[in-house]
Write a structure and sequence with these properties.
Radius of gyration: 33 Å
Mean pLDDT: 75
Low-confidence stretches: 65-73, 92-101, 224-230
Number of helices: 8
CATH class of the largest domain: Mainly Alpha
Largest sheet: 2 strands, parallel
Structural class: mainly alpha
Strand content: under 5%
Distance between the termini: 86 Å
CATH topology of the largest domain: Four Helix Bundle (Hemerythrin (Met), subunit A)
């Protein structure tokens, strides 16, 4: 017998004793007080009995519900992409600063990635409930523009003129993170429930953060030591 059953049994026993006391009371005042106390005990026993039965029924429903039949849609899978680490070369160490051969296309694509990353960093889908209607509509109307910009950046970063030069692989991964973030932003506004909104918002912030860290590292490699390709 569980502790809940023991407590209910004890409560009904106290109720029974209260009624016995009411029946044996002498005088109208004593009988009235005893009856009120007995009724109070009975009401408490019935109330807790209903709670106990409802709790057991809920537990049985949870145990008998087959897996995969929940009405709540599962959160969208994470789309965070890991940025590959630069390949270390076995060249002999040199005291002079290492230069990086680059192209105008790579520099333009890095600047475009920085621009998109700055725009996305200013957005926070999880705070849409605090926005005015005008701010919400403005953000929603810009979603397709951000998505097109992210896909365009990914296409540029995947081109041979960028991907085959030093730093091109890192930029391609950064563009992949930013494009995934724009898709998560679109998915947020198309969510059917709070769980999907939370998942898309979390993935959006993770992708933007991963892209920001990788972009800062790439810019540090480019800054001050850029040698234009012939």
């Amino acid at each position: 017998m569980t502790s809940e059953s023991l407590l209910l049994t004890l409560l009904y026993a106290i109720t029974a004793l209260a009624f016995i006391g009411a029946l044996n009371a002498h005088g109208k005042l004593r009988m009235g007080i005893s009856t009120v106390l007995a009724l109070f005990c009975l009401g408490a026993a019935v109330f807790h009995s209903f709670r106990y039965v409802a709790h057991k029924e809920a537990m049985m429903d949870m145990l008998t519900t087959p897996a995969g039949t929940s009405d709540v849609s599962q959160p969208a899978p994470a789309t965070v992409m890991e940025t590959p680490k630069p390949v270390e070369k076995d060249n002999a160490p040199s005291a002079a600063p290492q230069t990086m051969l680059t192209t105008p296309e790579l520099i333009a694509a890095v600047n475009a990635a920085q621009h998109l990353r700055s725009e996305l960093a200013e957005l926070d889908p999880s705070h849409v409930s605090q926005m005015s209607d005008a701010e919400y509509l403005r953000m929603q109307n810009h979603v397709q523009g951000y998505k097109a910009e992210g896909q365009g950046l990914l296409d540029r970063a995947s081109s041979p003129t960028i991907k085959q030069v030093e730093g091109g692989e890192e930029l391609n991964a950064i563009a992949g993170n930013l494009a995934a973030a724009t898709r998560d932003l679109e998915g947020f506004f198309k969510s059917e429930n709070g769980a999907q909104e939370k998942a898309h918002s979390s993935n959006f912030h993770k992708n933007v953060q991963v892209a920001a860290v990788a972009l800062d590292k790439l810019k540090a490699r480019l800054g001050g030591t850029i040698t234009a390709a012939p």
